[in-house]
Specification:
125 residues, mainly alpha, Arc Repressor Mutant, subunit A, two-stranded antiparallel ribbon, 5 helices, 58% helix, elongated, Molybdate_resp_trans_reg
């Protein structure tokens, strides 16, 4: 077996979807978008990075803003600094908490993921 096949479990990670029961749904798409906004300083640039239509990106952010009852992303227009989009303290906290949860789940599930990938690697071609 080639070494890249035996290490395939390193590429497999669980994806977490959280529904709060209060109309807030948090998952990989929204979190990836928040990460991209934090990196690019722009909803449009973040959407391009994720190959997502701008309208979809805006709707995802709006659903988080509505769900939490306050903004997770804020925009500043023009001016001397050129404006931009940034995560609010709530958005930063949401991203930080989700990332920490994701890491804990990945760490705790690594043995099971390796075992599942090993089973898949044994399947006939």
């Amino acid at each position: 077996m080639a070494s890249d096949e035996s290490n395939s479990h390193h590429l497999v990670r669980p994806r977490i979807h959280i529904g709060t029961g209060k109309g807030i749904a948090i998952g990989p798409g929204k979190i990836d978008l928040l990460r991209a906004i934090a990196q690019t300083g722009s909803i449009a640039a973040a959407a391009r990075t994720l190959k997502m239509p701008y309208k979809r990106a805006w709707l995802l952010i709006d659903s988080l803003n509505q769900g939490f009852g306050r903004p997770v992303v804020s925009t500043a227009s023009g001016g001397k600094e050129g404006g931009g989009t940034f995560l609010t303290p709530l958005g930063e906290n949401l991203l930080e908490r989700y990332t920490a949860l994701e890491q804990r789940i990945n760490d705790a599930s690594s043995q099971e993921i390796k075992a599942l990938c090993d089973l898949a690697d044994r399947l006939p071609e």
